[in-house]
Design goal:
This is DUF2759 domain-containing protein. The chain is built from two helices and no strands. The termini are close together. The relative contact order is 0.20.
Length: about 60
């Protein structure tokens, strides 16, 4: 279940990268951040749908 947490954190960091790249008008940074956001965001959503939300105890 740690996978969904890691994917979620990467997705949030990619969103931050998109905002920061837009402010700096960095086209290559925007492209890479959008790609990362799309891929890891999709993995996050699909992992949550398939395995559910992570729980604190096993």
């Amino acid at each position: 279940m740690g996978t969904v947490i890691i994917f979620g954190l990467i997705t949030l960091l990619a969103l931050y990268g998109i905002v920061r790249s837009l402010r700096a008008k960095n086209i290559l940074g925007i492209l890479f951040a959008l790609g990362t956001f799309a891929v890891f965001g999709w993995f996050t959503v699909m992992t949550v749908l398939h395995h559910g939300f992570p729980t604190g105890t096993h």
